[in-house]
Amino acid sequence: MNPKRTFLIVVSLVFLLTFCCIAAVENAHPLPSWNDGSTKQSIIEFVETVTTEGSPDYVAPAQRIAVFDNDGTLWAEQPLYFEGFFTVDRVKTLAPGHPEWKEEEPFASLLTGNAREVLAGDVQSMQEILIATHSGMSTEEFEKLVNRWISTAKHPVTNRPFTQMVYQPMLELMAYLRASGFKTFIVSGGGSEFMRPWAEDVYGIPPEQVVGTTVKTKYEMCNNKPVLMRLPEFDFIDVNEGKPIGIEKFIGRVPLVAFGNSDGDLQMLQWTDAGPGKRLSAVIHHTDAEREWAYDDQSPIGHLEETLKTANAKGWTVVDMKRDWKFIFHKEENP
Amino acid sequence: MNPKRTFLIVVSLVFLLTFCCIAAVENAHPLPSWNDGSTKQSIIEFVETVTTEGSPDYVAPAQRIAVFDNDGTLWAEQPLYFEGFFTVDRVKTLAPGHPEWKEEEPFASLLTGNAREVLAGDVQSMQEILIATHSGMSTEEFEKLVNRWISTAKHPVTNRPFTQMVYQPMLELMAYLRASGFKTFIVSGGGSEFMRPWAEDVYGIPPEQVVGTTVKTKYEMCNNKPVLMRLPEFDFIDVNEGKPIGIEKFIGRVPLVAFGNSDGDLQMLQWTDAGPGKRLSAVIHHTDAEREWAYDDQSPIGHLEETLKTANAKGWTVVDMKRDWKFIFHKEENP
Predict the structure, then answer these.
(1) Is B311 contained in some domain?
(2) Rounded to two decimals, what is the model's pTM?
(3) In a domain, B262, yes or no
C-alpha cells in the first residue's frame, strides 16, 4: 500500500471517528416517542448489551435478527385487520359477477356489513373469502390491486390512509435496531404479497424480509412471457406454530428480538425466548381506548390472553401503549 | 446542525471521496480468475450499466437481486450432487438399524455403491432416501449432522473437503456483485438446511438468503423447550418451475442477475430474463474435462440441454469454463 493512500485512509478514519462520536452522543436518546420508564429502559439496555463487543452477551451483527408481527404490532388492527378491509372491498368489486354471493355465506354477511364477525370468527370462512378475492390472477396483477387500494382506501373510523396508522414508536424502534446492526423482518399472518408492495416505503422492510401467509402459485407462459398465477389454495399459513416454522424456513436463524401482540404470536415469542443467550421477547398491549383501542382477551381481533399470561410468567417485556408511548400513530398524524 | 459538526462532515467526505476514487481505480479489474474475453466483458459491462446513476438502465441498490444455483454453479456436482454423498453416508450410518435395507430398493443399490444411478435417476427413489435420512430429528440436530459431515468428509475423486470444491471465479463474481450493491441469494434444488450451516462461511451468503428444498416441520415442546421436528414429507421442491415460485415466495422480487448450469435452472433464467429492463441470465457450461468435468446433455447429473438451447437462442451469457476461467477451484487449491 503506498504512503499517500495510507495517509488518506488514516486521516479519513480520524475524521469519521470524530463524526461518529458526535453522532453517538446525539443518538444516546433513541426512541423519542417512547416515554421514559422501565419498558424503554429494558429495550435500550438489551440492545446495548448484545451489541457491546466484549460483553458476555455480545451477538455478532450477522446474527442480529429482529422479527415483528404486523397487525396490532406495527400498525392498528381494529375494528378489523386492515387486509380484511381490502378483502371486503374486493368482494364488493367482484360481487356483480357473483350474484349467488347475495345468498351464499360467508359472502352474504360480508356484503351486508358483518365483516368483523365473518373475518374474525371462523377460519374456514375467512379462507373461502381470501381465496375468492386473492387468487385467479398473476402475482403482478395482484401487486397492482394492492398498490391501488393502499394508496386510496381510508380507515372507516379515523378516515386516514391505512399506512398512516402505523405506530410511530415502532418505526423508531425498527430504525434504532437497524442502526444497531439488526436486520428487521415482518413475520405476520397477513399475506406476504399484500404487505410487500408498501412495507419497504412504510417500514423500511424490503420484500425479501417479509414472511407472511402465501398462496400456491403456478408458473405459466402467457403470450411468450412467464407469469406466476395465484392459485385458490393456501401454501403456508403464518400464524401460531406457523410463525416459528416460517422463521426457520425463510430466515433460518432463531431471532434475537421478537415483538407481537396477540395469541397468534405466542409460539414466535417462545421460540425466540428459547434461543441461547439473552433474547428480547416483547408483547404490545393495547391499553389506550382514547388514542387507539383498548382490548385483549375479549376481542376476537388480536385476541390476547395466553400470550399475556406467558409474558407475565416469564418476565417478558410488556409494552403498555397508554403508559409507554408518547405518540401512537405515525408522526405526521400526531399533534 | 452546528458549524463544527458540518466542518467535520465535509472534511470526512472529501477524504473518503479521495479514498474511494483510489479504491475504484484499483477495483477497475475485478474478476481476476476470469480470462479476459467477451464473457468477462459482458458481465462487467452489465454490472456497470445497471449501477451507473443516470444510465437509462440504472437499477436502485435495493432492487439489485442476484440468484445463483448451487450444484454445478457455485461448487462441483460430479460424480454425484454433494448432498448425495452426505445422503449415502447417512444411509450407511443408519443401515445397522435397518437390516431390511439390504434387500429393499433404493437402499440396497445405494449400499452396494450404485448411488449415482439411484440419486440421479428416479425422483421417487431419491425422495424416499432423502426422507429416510433427512427427517425424524430436530432442525438443531440436523444442523449438527451437516456441520460434522461437511467439516470431515472428502470428495472421492479429488480427496478434498467439499467446501474447497467451490469455484473461485464464482466467489469473485459474488464478491464483485456485493461490492456493487447487489444482494446475493442461493436458489438451489439442494436442501436449505443442508446449505445454510456453511454457506455463510464459504460463499458469504447468510441463511436468510438461502432458498432451497425444504421438508415440513412440526413445532413441539420437548422438555419444556420448543423444537422444530423435521417430518418425512417435502414442503417445497426448489427445481424447475419451483425456482421462480421460490424466488417470488422467499424474495418477492424478480432477480436482476441469475446464474445456473442445468435444465433445472431454465425457468429461473427465463423468469429473470423476462423482468423489465436489462437483465443478466447466464449459464455455466462444464467444458473442462482436465481441470474439472466436461458434461452437458449426456449427463444425468446437471443435465444441460434445453437451457443451453434457450441460452443460445436468446443470446444469454454462456460461461465456457475451459475458455473463460483461469482457475477453477477455490484459490487455496489452485497452484
Answers:
(1) yes
(2) 0.91
(3) yes
